[in-house]
Amino acid sequence: MTPMIDVVFLLIIFFLVSSHLAKQETQLEMELAGAASGATPEETNDRRLVVNVLPDEATGEIQVVVTGNVMNTPNLRSMLDFEVEQAKLEKRALEVRIRCDRRVPYHKVEPIMVTCAAAGVWKVTFAVLGE
Amino acid sequence: MRAATGHNDRKRLDVQMTPMIDVIFLLLIFFVCTAGFQRIENILPTHMTLPGQVQSDMPPVEEEFEDLDTIVINLRWVGDSPQWEISGRNYNSLPEVQSLLAAIATQVRSDLPVILDVGAVVPMENVIDLYDACRLVGLERVQFAASPETVRAATLR
Q: What is the ipTM of this complex?
């Protein structure tokens, strides 16, 4: 029995750890801004789209990255329209979470918020770090 | 790894160290791995509506509230530091702004809408700080002003 228990225990730990790491890897690494009034995100049934805004490592230019693709405003609009449509079909609310680097100037984030409002998405949240 | 035998031929009473070390080592690795060195992210909720474009589940603003004043905070970037302007007066530090907002929230009313008019080059860090300050003093209805050009560009299909 003992070696079998050893192996099974090891496998359990392996899968626990790898699933945990897989979850962490879905987030692009960036420096978020801090906020004392930030709320803990709750697990909801909402459809969620994460919009990352961060400077490109090579050029330093600000990029909008959604699901790994660099987006411009028309692209983002058509993606949001699609997401709104899907959410409506699934009868779920759509949440857009903006994860932006702290150094990103406001005029890069403003079009994203306006696009969300224009597409009829009213649930927009900013990702922040607790203080 | 040495298998534990259950009884000891030499009838020694000392604790078998190797399996214990095995287990403790495993537990240690488990907790180190699961602890994660990433800081937990929180969220700041916003309310988004564009005039004439409302298709949301949010209740519409009642008419009696529309007569009320709004607090418009103009956040600008002057030189290399932020500057806040509320109804014509300039403030150079966030704590000043926050105490003013706290006074408004407690003495006037706390459900006054706050409109943040942010300059183009202001880093998001300062925008988030201001938003956070509003929420901290109890002003929950924070909205962002958008320039007409941005709105036009974003709504053009």
A: 0.73
- What count of residues does chain A have? 131
Q: Residue A73 and residue A79: Cα distance in Å, rounded?
A: 10
Q: Which two tokens stand for residue B23?
A: 């287990």
Residues of A within 8 A of B136 (CB-CB) are 36-37
Nearest CA in chain A to B5: A2
CA-CA-CA-CA torsion sign (B52, B56, B58, B60): positive
The domains found in chain A, sorted by start residue, are 29-126 (3.30.420.270)
The model's pTM: 0.68
> Considering only CB atoms, which chain B residues are within 8 Å of A39?
42-45
The CATH class given to the B68-155 domain equals: alpha beta
Q: What is the pLDDT of residues A112-127, one digit of tens each?
A: 888 888 888 888 888 8
Biggest distance spanned by C-alpha atoms of chain A: 64
Q: Could you state, in order of their start, the residue ranges of all structural domains in chain B?
A: 68-155
Which residues from A are below 8 Å from B41, CB to CB? 27, 32, 41, 99, 127-129
